[in-house]
Write a structure and sequence with these properties.
- The complex is a heterodimer of chains A (about 725) and B (about 160).
- With about 725 residues, chain A is of the alpha/beta class.
- Chain A folds into five domains: about 160 residues; about 120 residues, no CATH class; about 150 residues, 3-Layer(aba) Sandwich (Rossmann fold); about 110 residues, Translation factors (Elongation Factor Tu (Ef-tu), domain 3); about 140 residues, Rossmann fold, CATH 3.40.50.80.
- Chain A is built from 23 helices and 24 strands.
- Chain A has an eight-stranded antiparallel β-sheet with strand order 4-3-2-1-5-6-7-8, covered by helices on one side. Chain A has a six-stranded antiparallel β-sheet with strand order 17-16-19-14-15-18. Chain A has a five-stranded parallel β-sheet with strand order 10-9-11-12-13, with helices on both faces.
- In chain A, a hairpin with a 2-residue loop joins strand 2 and strand 3.
- Chain B is mainly beta.
- Chain B has a five-stranded mixed β-sheet with strand order 4-3-2-6-7, with helices on both faces. In chain B, strands 5-1-8 form a three-stranded antiparallel β-sheet.
- Helix content of chain B is about 15%, strand content about 35%.
- The chains are: A alpha/beta (about 725), B mainly beta (about 160).
Chain lengths: ~725, ~160
């Protein structure tokens, strides 16, 4: 709901909002420039003294105005012709032209009415309303995404466009909300919808009928400092009934030209004050630095518009239409989908297709539409659920748990739940697990045990599919392709073999860079831009499922490098290990920004074992800035599978790696990488407490062992691994 | 109601019958290229003593800005009743305003003065932009304004 409130104003009003923001940002420059360019008044100069100075220079003086910037403009009649200029309060003489700046006038008209008069003003107000709706709904979305208002500035993960969108938003949203709300107020004021008109300075006493009282002697003007002045109008020469009219920050009044007495005074109304403050906040006139800050924030709008459209397109593309969806009342199998970004819908579509091909009638619906009364023919219910933030329901599953809790009786059809998530998050599949637990507590019969898919792994999904197929008595092969990947042919240009002596044949495989189109290079898609830690999806012959390998090189290295270990019976690793230089493979690139070293100078603690050294070696190779890297590497035997052994010696000499600690598991006394970590515990704890980041790559068992070792090392300091993970300072790439 | 005001009321509301003592007058105001937004104009008449007699036309749609038409506003308070049906859009720089109305014969060659007050956003207000006596001789002769109006002509 909130997302829809954010999406539609954003898409519909995008161009309008961008025009308003850019013109507003440009306009915000004028008040500070005007303020810097205007000669400022000495501190205790009175209006009487100022008027006398200007009148001495221009005897036909008609009016003095002071802008909030401090600029003083005078208008006079000189030998019948009117004159006007910006004057220096110190001398009362002209320093600049009083004509309005043409660029500012053009921008102002664009900004408030798109050069279309009142219709344009209404359109601009609609743009401001859209901006306000975007700001408020966006703030709620940011808070939801980062896990609460208190975690507003939490580190972000995920694709770059979405991250940029939120990064800019959380810095700028307050200013944008203020600018758009004040814009609406000002439009209402312009159309006379607010009772904020100025009270006219009522003349309560009758003018004396005399003229010629010296302006320097008028008491009210002597008591009014120039800093409070807005406008002083002079009586028309020869018109005895006319008066001096003074407007200040406090109000407006009339002064007799023959006696200098105050004839009437009207203070500012409350509404007037509010409207003036709002106008100042919006335009920056009288608050130049503040206005400039708002202008800077407005500059974020085009970028947010662009990234917002990208986010929307990605979301749209990744939520496929389900073909041949059956009505709920007729379906034997009900698929309920809890998806935030749309990728879970992709899995649901794959499952829907496979079940339909197996002859079943299948109905897919969002979990939020859960309604067991309609499932008249349902034989089984399958829930595919992602998790949002810290264990919350994803967008399409809102209210599901409440509805489940309110059910008097759970459906007779048994339930299968599969969760989708990222194992490196503390709340991995927390929502799906909560659904599964709530269903079990209600006594809902289980079709297959709860299972989870890590990072959209097609393998995980296929494994669960086999279990589901067994329970249904059908052969269910789920070949899910998350994104239609752009496969390219890579050619092997070199390989180095390790580990044959320790029954763990492993190789570092180096492929040539594939040809990349200019467009891809510009947009950084596919092989146009990649770094160590990204993933190479390799499609083995005879399978539709790609296998993913962590990259040990970046585009700047000029080659594509991975580390592969031969798994007994492994289809893909077997084919890769059999490659000879010149042989091709079919592969595509998947970005994995979560497993990139953060772009700061904090020390890195890299921990890996076996093929897990791949991306870590890539980080070291890329460490031209010589940030302190402490590498912990576990192997079987240094004579056999010391991957990157030669390079590491050189990198250490160059200072690319500050410290290398190895652990050897084959030998008299097996020593694993977590043991090495423990023996350096004091130093590791010191590094982490001083801000070091931890990156772990390797098998799941190793990762668990490392996590335990880190927990023990950090426990005395009251630092928890979960807290480090939440901060993004402890990331894992585990397989 | 004073007879003069009644006459002006006739000029203002053309639908009223009995305009036998009035004649059609065309007012043409050409504006300078003063380099600003559209001008607000108030065109009105004062009697031989200089007192406000009635309004012929107001250009500019937002009544909240009428106070910048200083003299006219002081005389009328910007009261909507004064200008009901005789307002139009503001006049852009370099553009020409042309209006035709029926003016009572009693006002012509009788010491009455035609006034124009002008105001432009962020520029100087110009009350008494033009003050021209209403005479048969003056008809068809352009009068220069002080700041925003290049020329005003009334033809009868």
């Amino acid at each position: 709901m909130i997302r829809a409130l954010h999406r539609w104003p954003g898409l519909l009003a995008l161009a309008l909002v961008v025009i308003l923001a850019l013109s507003g940002a440009a306009l915000s420059i004028f008040p500070p420039v005007e303020r810097l360019a205007s000669p400022q008044t000495e501190a205790d100069l009175s209006v009487a003294e100022l008027a006398a100075r200007i009148q001495a220079a221009y005897p036909g003086l008609e009016r003095i105005r002071r802008a909030p910037s401090g600029r003083i403009m005078a208008a006079w009649l000189d030998g019948g012709g009117p004159g006007a200029a910006v004057v220096d309060p110190a001398t009362g003489r002209r320093v600049a032209s009083a004509d309005p700046d043409q660029a500012q006038r053009w921008l102002t008209n664009l900004h408030r009415s798109l050069f279309l008069g009142d219709a344009g003003r209404i359109a601009a107000a609609a743009g401001a309303a859209a901006m306000l709706a975007l700001s408020l709904s966006g703030a709620v979305l940011v808070a939801r995404r980062s896990g609460g208002w208190r975690r507003w500035f939490a580190r972000l993960r995920g694709p770059l466009s979405g991250r940029l969108h939120v990064e800019i938003a959380r810095a700028a949203v307050a200013g944008l909300a203020l600018s758009s709300a004040t814009a609406l107020w000002m439009t209402a004021s312009t159309f006379d919808l607010l009772p904020d008109g100025a009270a006219s300075p009522a003349i309560t006493a009758v003018p004396s009928g005399k003229t010629g009282f010296p302006i320097a002697a008028i008491d009210l003007l002597r008591r009014t400092p120039v800093t409070e002045l807005r406008e002083l109008s002079f009586p028309y020469p020869g018109d005895v009934s006319d008066v001096f009219t003074l407007k200040t920050d406090r109000g407006a009044g009339s002064i007799d030209q023959g006696t200098g007495a105050v004839l009437g005074w009207a203070g500012l109304t409350g509404w007037e004050r509010v409207s003036e403050t709002i106008s100042m906040l919006h335009t920056g006139r009288g608050a130049a630095a503040f206005g400039l800050a708002l202008g800077l924030m407005a500059m974020g709008v085009p970028a947010m518009g662009g990234t917002g459209v990208l986010v929307w397109l990605a979301r749209k593309r990744s939520s496929p239409r389900i073909r041949g969806n059956q009505p709920a009342g007729r379906a034997e199998t009900i698929l309920l989908v809890g998806s935030e970004g749309g990728s879970t819908w992709g899995f649901a579509a794959t499952l829907h297709r496979a079940l339909t091909e197996a002859g079943q009638t299948v109905h897919a619906a969002p979990m939020a539409a859960f309604d067991p009364d309609r499932y008249a023919r349902a034989r089984r219910i399958i829930i595919l659920a992602a998790t949002y933030g810290n264990g919350d329901a994803p967008a399409s599953a809102k209210g599901f748990l409440d509805r489940l809790a309110q059910l008097e009786a759970v459906p007779a059809a048994p339930l299968a739940v599969i969760g989708f998530g990222d194992r490196s998050f503390p709340a991995f599949c927390a929502f799906a697990k909560a659904v599964s637990a709530a269903a079990a507590a209600k006594g809902w019969r289980e079709l297959v045990p709860f299972d989870a898919v890590d990072r959209q792994s097609p393998q995980d999904f296929a494994r669960w599919g086999r279990a589901l197929g067994q329970a249904l008595g059908i052969d269910l092969a789920l070949a899910h392709q998350p994104i239609p990947a752009a496969f390219q042919r890579l050619t092997l240009i070199g390989r180095r073999d390790y580990g044959a002596d320790v029954q763990a044949p492993t190789a570092i495989l180096r492929f040539s860079l594939p040809k990349v189109s200019l467009w891809r290079r510009l947009t950084g898609k596919g092989f146009g831009r990649f770094r160590a830690g990204d993933l190479l999806g390799v499609l083995p012959d005879g399978s539709g499922l790609p296998r993913f390998y962590s990259l040990a090189s970046g585009r700047r290295d000029g080659f594509v490098e991975i580390v592969v270990k031969k798994h007994p019976g492994g289809l893909c690793s077997g084919q890769l290990m059999a490659l000879e230089p010149g042989d091709p493979v079919s592969a595509f690139l998947r970005r994995n920004p979560r497993f990139h070293p953060a772009p700061d100078r904090a020390p890195l603690i890299l921990i890996g074992a076996g093929t897990g050294i791949g991306p870590l070696a890539g980080f070291v190779r890329d460490n031209a800035r010589r940030r302190p890297i402490h590498l912990f590497f576990g192997m079987r035997h240094p004579d056999s599978d010391f991957l990157y052994g030669e390079e590491l010696a050189g990198w250490q000499a160059e200072g690319r790696v500050a410290q290398l600690v190895t652990a050897v598991s084959r030998g008299a006394k097996p020593h694993y990488v977590q043991d090495a970590l423990r023996s350096e515990g004091a130093q590791v704890a010191r590094l982490i407490r001083s801000g070091a980041r931890v990156m772990v790559c390797g098998g799941r068992d190793m990762a668990v062992g490392v996590a335990e070792a880190l927990a023990d090392i950090l426990a005395p300091w009251g630092v928890s691994a979960a807290a480090l993970k939440a901060e993004g300072r402890y990331v894992e790439d585990v397989y | 109601m004073k007879p003069v005001l009644a006459a002006l009321a006739l000029t203002a509301s053309l639908a009223l019958p009995g305009v036998a003592t009035a004649r059609p007058v065309t007012l043409t105001a050409a504006l300078n290229n003063y380099g600003g937004d559209g001008a607000y104009l108030a065109i009105y008449v004062t009697d031989p003593k200089g007192a406000y007699a009635g309004t012929l036309w107001v250009s500019g749609g937002k009544s909240k800005y009428y106070r910048h038409l200083t003299d006219w506003h002081r005389a009328t308070g910007g009261a909507p009743a004064e200008i009901n049906g005789i307002t139009g859009a503001s006049v852009g720089a370099g553009r020409t305003l042309k209006i035709t109305l029926d003016l009572a014969d009693a006002l012509i060659d009788a010491g009455y003065t035609l006034h124009v007050d002008a105001a432009v956003e962020n520029m100087r207000d110009s009350p008494n932009e033009i003050a021209a006596p209403l005479t048969i001789d003056g008809a068809g002769k352009p009068v220069r304004g002080r700041r925003y109006v290049a020329s005003l002509t009334y033809d009868m």
